[in-house]
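Practice record 12: protein with adenosine-5'-diphosphate.
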Amino acid sequence: MEGVCLNAAENTVIATRTRNVSAQFSILSTYFAQDNQNPLDSERKFDKLAEDVAGVFLNRIQVIDENFTIVSDTYQINKGKLCISPDVNRCFNGTNQAYTDKQHKCLVLTQSIKNSDGEVEYVMFATSSIADIYDAMDSIRLIVAAVVIILTIVLLTAAIFSAYKMVKPFRKIEDTIEHIGRGGTVEAINLKGSSEIITISNSFNTMMDRINQLEDSRQEFVSNVSHELKTPITSMKVLAESLVGQEGVPEELYQEFLGDIVGELDRENNIINDLLTLVKMDRTGLEMNFTQVNINELIEAQLKLIRPLAAQKNIELVFESFRPILAEIDETKFSMCISNLVVNAIKYNNNEGWVHVSLNADATYFYVKVQDNGFGIPEKSVEHIFDRFYRVDKARDRATGGTGLGLAITKSIVVAHNGDIKLHSEVDVGSTFIMQIPLTHIS
Ligand code: ADP
């Protein structure tokens, strides 16, 4: 690029020089023509005038007459010799010339000198050195090349440095990801740099927090599962060992202990079933079978199944519906929610208590409210109530035969319906669970 610019500059300077020299040369020829009255005197005058003007721009001037004889030469070398060159010939035919001879670094000019009749009498042939222009341009080229090289080195160094600076934070993220991939743990990374890098750093840390939370809850879940599965097995082992260790155990005791063992087996079975339901919900996530269902009929059917349980504790179970409601739900899974909430309201209730189930809807959602006047849930437990294996009172709640997974399953199902579940509760006053589910499913 800079080569093109320099060449253009060089051409411009040479063109200017050519114009100046041509003008000078033209004036000189006019002067010769006017002063050329006496041919005998002409040689001497040519020499004199040529010497006077040569040396400013025109280095060498030769004057050639019609016989192609050089009558004047400022170098005095060719005087008297013949000069039969195409340039001179062309000039005698009326074409003055001015061109650049790059090889000899000079301008070549021819100019005719006409007599009073307008006939070409002499031809002036001159050369003007432009070596100074070429030398100056060579020096400029050298300087420009040096500047370009220095600038390239500086820019390259700056580019390498800024590339290194830009890539460095990503290297750190890459190293961190590799470290995590090898099983290592990471707290947080603190990257410095542009706002984009800080945004990436913050997003990475948020992701890591989430991964750490998931890992914590996974570990807690595994330890809870192990504990919950071990408890019935330990009880069964104690019961069985106490029978095996004694001789002559009465049959009633056998019956009683074996009945307890069957109870523990049922418990183990319930836990495994609930776990399988949860894992299935987690893995298949939203593998739901949405159909248009009459919610009033669904609740009636569930309550019919649960009524005997309520009757055992003499609990009043009432269903109140404000309007017939049709909604797009997964019938089997949503039935499980109703069952879990209503069974809990009976389990964690006093004898002679009451459980009210109500159904209502607005333009977008339907609402199922399960209200009881049972034990209630302490405020500090409310935020954990939907956690897996969470129980308010471990000993009391295990005795009810529960697994601690019912509300976790219920919440998963409600979320899979794009719904919400809320709890209001007061100890010894009662609890109210409200499910809000969209009437139409939008995947
Ligand atoms: P569980 O199988 O133990 O019933 P859940 O997940 O269904 O498991 O319930 C978790 C815990 O929430 C129960 O152990 C109980 O302490 C509490 N709970 C649930 N429903 C009620 C309710 N209606 N009244 C009082 N406590 C409740």
